[in-house]
Amino acid sequence: MADIACETPCLPSSPVVEQKHKVAFTRLHFDVTHFESRAAPAQLEKRARLQVYNVLAAVLRRRFRGCQVKMFGSAAQDLALHSSDIDIALLSPEKMGHKVLFQIAWKLENVGLVEPTQTQVRHQARVPVLSVQTKPEFGSLRFDIVVNNEDGVKVTPIVQKFLRGMPALRPLLLTIKVFLSQRGLNSAATGGPSSYVLTCMVIHFLQANPYRRSESQIDDPIRSESLGYLLLDFMQYYGSEFPYETHYISVKAGKLLPKEDAPWISENCYRHLCVECLTTEKANIARALNKTKALKAALSDGFTQLRDLMGLSDLGTTSQERTPSEGSSFRCLSSSGFSYLDNIIAMAHQASDQTLDFEKLTFNVKRFKERNAM
Hints:
- The protein has 12 helices and 7 strands.
- The chain is α+β, with helices and mostly antiparallel strands.
- A hairpin with a 6-residue loop joins strand 3 and strand 4.
- Helix 6 packs across helix 7.
- The protein starts with a helix and ends with a helix.
- The N terminus is likely disordered.
């Protein structure tokens, strides 16, 4: 951590570290842990999704003999939300162009697995992709399929390793993903940060520890009940402190590095967030991100809203120490069941409305296999 600190712009102690506000931060910590359990699919839903994935993969392997089918992305990393797509890579020892995506689409429609009206081939994208949605009897799940592109597959074990070593990574990432999703800032296709970019943002934040949290708060957030502190720190860091124009994130190096020393970063990216790829040398995985200003504003607003709800309104986003109003940390805790997080994220919409009927889906998958002699 010492090497990181000397290379990352050293920020003063966060203004939100006041000990007298510990009760409020503890409440926010439990908001985050509760939200994590609701935002992600439950085990039964994961099993249902896996059943549909296995059927779809079997159809692809039967159609393209000798090919491998691999899941990657958030579903493979246990970072999926209820609404997350499932990313699939079809890997062939032979060269396959983007026209294969049309063949895949036809095959999946022909066997009755996906909705033809929801099928889209984005063949002009930097990485051509086929987007499909399964029929309602198979859960109406969305899949993104790429051909002979192993980037995502190679990243998966790296992210899984960080997840094992950083207990705060998953709850923070899921919370931020939904927060940005509800503000239209969760997709590279629309100029926002991709899930991959967001993952690297949270990893870097935990590596750099810009507000010098204690080792236990970073490495053991559940026991130290520090997720509330870390969430506000993250929003403050990327909402007002991060040097977007001068530095880029290098998770591999464990620190920020100057853009001027990276000729592979184009000048038109200097105003935006830049993130070095975890696997490919000299590649910016955030090059499609063009809503840096909106990203900063959303995170800054999120910080301000939480700060005010928690009775920290006398504390700004600068490093100047201020004296909080007497008893302010308790004003928002007076009513039973109050959630700070519920004021910036529509938590009620993250769960049951998209839950799969496991028994019905299992029956339909079994019948599909019998019908197709699988």
